Amino acid sequence: MILVIGTIIPLASLYFRFEKQRLDNRKAYLDQALLRTTLEFEKGIEEYAVLVSGLRSYIIEIGRIPTPEEIQNYLKNQLEFVEYGHSVIINYIDKNHRFIYSVSEESLTPNELVGVDVSEIRDKAVLERLESFIKQDRIMTFPILNLVEGFAGFPINFTVKENGVMKGYIACIINIKNILEPIYDFDIRDEFRYRFYFDNDIEFDRERVQDGSKVYHNRNDTLRPLQNFENFIYNQTEILGLEYKIGINYKEADKVLSFVRYVRTSAVIIMAFILFSALLIYLFVQNYARAKDLERSNEDLYFMNNLLRKFIYAASHDLKQPVVNIDNFHGLIKRKFSETLGEKGNKYMEVISHNIDYMKTMLDDLLVYSRVIREKKEKGRVELRKVLDEIKETYPGEKILISYDVNANVYGIESEIHRLFQNLISNAIKYNDNEVVEINIQSRISKGRYEFVVSDNGIGIDEAHLELVFEEFQRLDKRKYKGTGLGLAICKEIVINHGGSIIAKRNEKGGTDFIFQLKIYA
Asked: Side by side, which strands form the sheet with 502-506?
């Protein structure tokens, strides 16, 4: 009996100490997730505010109210650099709060609001906020709205002037899903539930605003019916004049193993192996400590990898707008002051133009690279002949011969497969000094997969560089051949994402063979 009690007491002490540490770690992990969610929410709004700020700068530069067609063209150009799809609506409303026009990327009449007074569709609080807003010359956010276009819209407004006189304001509205979706995407393990509020008490999610107003669709945020709103923790933030509250909690309730049940279940084992208990406890403590260290190391590595991917994406994505602005003002200076600059000045402007183009190309490639290593899209059937036919049509003429006899259907992401073959073919053309460029694509089944060989008659790759060319920012000849050095790195990541590997070999023509595998679509 004494031996049993002497064994149970240290087991109890160990159990309760570990249980307390587990609960502390669970709370700290939730606090960390709330901070990350808040930062992601703020970042999404700030990225959208950059787009709105660019539109405001454009209107100030032209010095008048733009036409709907001009707004649409501007929107199409800017949406090449962001991932908002077709869910941005630009409204011009006069100072008497009457809609003059509404524009989207796809339509000059996305709704039937032209001539409608804001008071007919929005409450008194919104109108009071608008009256206060038009007296100020700044960008301001407004409460999220259920829109007739069929989504919950997040508005950012700014006033517009003509000849120094305030004529009205531009209301730029984006689908709130574009702000919230990255938060859910970051929750890879699907561990958390979220709540979002503005003005402290009005809740919204990815599909609607819970303010009692009419909703113009039948979709639901599928996470909402599962939510238990007890034990949420909250954070508050203020962005462009509006207060937001963000809440988070675990999806799964904490499962605690009863100590009494633990001891009762283990009683027979404890009695049978009482002589070995001290040794078992020692080994348990040692292995537990090692396991925790390994778990922390894995979590740190996972966190740093995600942080690196997000940094690459943010660097390439967030630098787009400044480069576009630099290019716009560079073009403006060149058009208006070309004669003043003289021959030498214009030569310097050409150097600037060349470097801007290089920066744009670098950012485009970085953005593609970050999407390949960051996004997890749904795979499906990809008709390779269709992909190759589309690529071949972009290289007409007799000096580029692209041949293939491929009827393979592969399992993958069509946009990435297209990018893979596009990069290999454009590489074969770029690094080729022959009068006629020859590119041949062959396929065969090997070990239950398609194996592809993309061959060219180009300048080839030295044996010492056959592995190095797949590393980021590696180029064979930086002086002779233009590029960013990311093309083959993107190819490598795409093939890895599809469960294969890629290598390069010199061929009999002196060019290069790129060999890789893709899964068969069954």
From this structure: 400-404, 437-446, 449-456, 512-519, 502-506
- Quick one: three-class SS letters along 276-296? HHHHHHHHHHHHHHHHHHHHH
CB-CB contact of 158 with 171 (8 Å): no
| The three-state (H, E, C) secondary structure of 209-228, written as one string | EECCCCCCCCCCCCCHHHCC
The residue among 442, 458, 461, 449 whose CA lies nearest residue 509 is: 458
| One-letter identity of residue 179 | I
Cα separation, 211 vs 204, whole angstroms: 8
Which domains are seen in the chain, by residue range?
A: 1-272 (3.30.450.350), 275-375 (1.10.287.130), 380-519 (3.30.565.10)
Tell me the per-residue pLDDT of 166-205, one tens digit each, with 9 for 90 and over.
899 999 999 998 889 889 888 888 889 999 998 767 888 8
Under a CB-based contact definition with an 8 Å cutoff, are residues 305 and 188 in contact?
Answer: no
Are 421 and 388 spatial neighbours (Cβ–Cβ below 8 Å)?
yes
Strand, helix or coil at 456? Answer: strand
pLDDT at 105: 86
Query: When comparing pLDDT for 228 and 85, which is higher?
Result: 85
Instruction: Report the DSSP beta bridge partners of residue 100.
Output: none
Strand partners, 156: 141, 172
313 or 281: which leads in pLDDT: 281
CB 146 within 8 A of CB 214: yes
Contacts of 125 (CB under 8 A, 6+ apart): 143
Ordered DSSP codes for 396-410: -SSSEEEEE----EE
pLDDT tens-digit series, residues 264-299: 555 555 555 566 667 778 787 778 778 777 777 666
The better pLDDT of the pair 479, 422 is held by 422
Calculate the dihedral angle through the C-alpha atoms of 80, 365, 374, 315, rounding to the nearest 10 degrees: -80
Q: Say if residues 118 and 97 touch (Cβ distance below 8 Å).
A: yes
As given in the structure block, the two tokens for residue 133 are 């807003």
State the amino acid at position 290 in one-letter form: R
Cα–Cα nearest to 182, from 171, 173, 172, 194: 194
pLDDT of the residue at 466:
86
Structure tokens at 475: 């180029």
